[in-house]
Here is the input.
Amino acid sequence: MLDWDTLEAQCLACQKCALADTRTHVVFGTGSRSAEVMFIGEGPGENEDLQGEPFVGRGGQLLDDMLEIIDLDRKTNIYIANIVKCRPPQNRDPLNTEQDACIGYLRNQVALIRPKIIVCLGRIAAARIIKEDFKITKEHGQWFERSGVHMMAMFHPAAILRDPRRRPEAFQDLKSLQAKIREVCTHTY
Ligand code: URA
Here is the structure.
């Protein structure tokens, strides 16, 4: 396991897959490195690639609004990272080969943070982190536990923007996350 500085330096210079050729910035991750709650998305989009930060732009604003409902803040009490750190062209799903090349960085981040709770944003992250055949429509909001880490998936903010009828379910999932934080976290609230 690498320390934060070495890990970030290696990640920022990464050439392990072809996404390195088309990226503007590597999007390493952001937030508190002592967070008990970690959010994991799929990969950078256009705005994230331009700014080097996860979840900026419209989806990021919605994510911030959702976090605020349950008193979470991306800078102070959570950490946000993605499965792949570089933007797939035209925002296509990251290929399995790209995910395989990149996942070690995320695993190292998880090992350094040792979160109590992992929230996957969308199917791609849930399929990689929780289980391969994850069905986001059916299994969002359900809790899974592995090695003492509590995990759940919520709809991706972009999916909520595309279909606002998902908002009530997203709200329920946030309330469930809030309850789980109260149950297992000691310094998030
Ligand atoms: N979508 C993601 O999954 N991650 C980001 O960082 C931005 C958009």
